[in-house]
Amino acid sequence: MEKLYTLKEAKRLLGVQTKAIQRWDREGMIRVVRTPGGRRRIPESEILRIQGEEKRERKLYGMRSHKQKEVVKNVKNILAQA
Questions:
Q1: SS3 helix, strand, coil % of the chain, rounded to 5?
Q2: Rounded Cα gap, residues 54 and 37, in angstroms
């Protein structure tokens, strides 16, 4: 069975705020599992997928700062909605 992370654990691993993960869930950008009480749990495969995307972006764009990564994510989100 795949390991599931709490939002607190996932945000620490991904370097984002809780609100970002909640927004990704609402927008269907990340797969989450709900507990019987309705809490979000993030599968390890999703953590690894997102970390892999960030590594590709850094390599592609030579990104180093958190702010620069956020700009790229925002642009990708806007393009995905278009």
A1: 60, 10, 30
A2: 31
Domain 4-81, CATH: 1.10.1660.10
| pLDDT number for residue 5 | 96
Bridge partners of residue 42, in order along the sequence: 5
CA distances from 46 to 14, 33, 64, 75 (A): 10, 11, 22, 21
pLDDT along the chain (82 residues), means of 10: 94 90 92 96 92 68 63 72 60
Contacts of 8 by beta carbon, 8 Å cutoff, 6+ apart: 18
Instruction: Say what the pTM is.
Output: 0.66
Q: Among candidates 21, 8, 5, 4, which has minimal Cα distance to 73?
A: 21
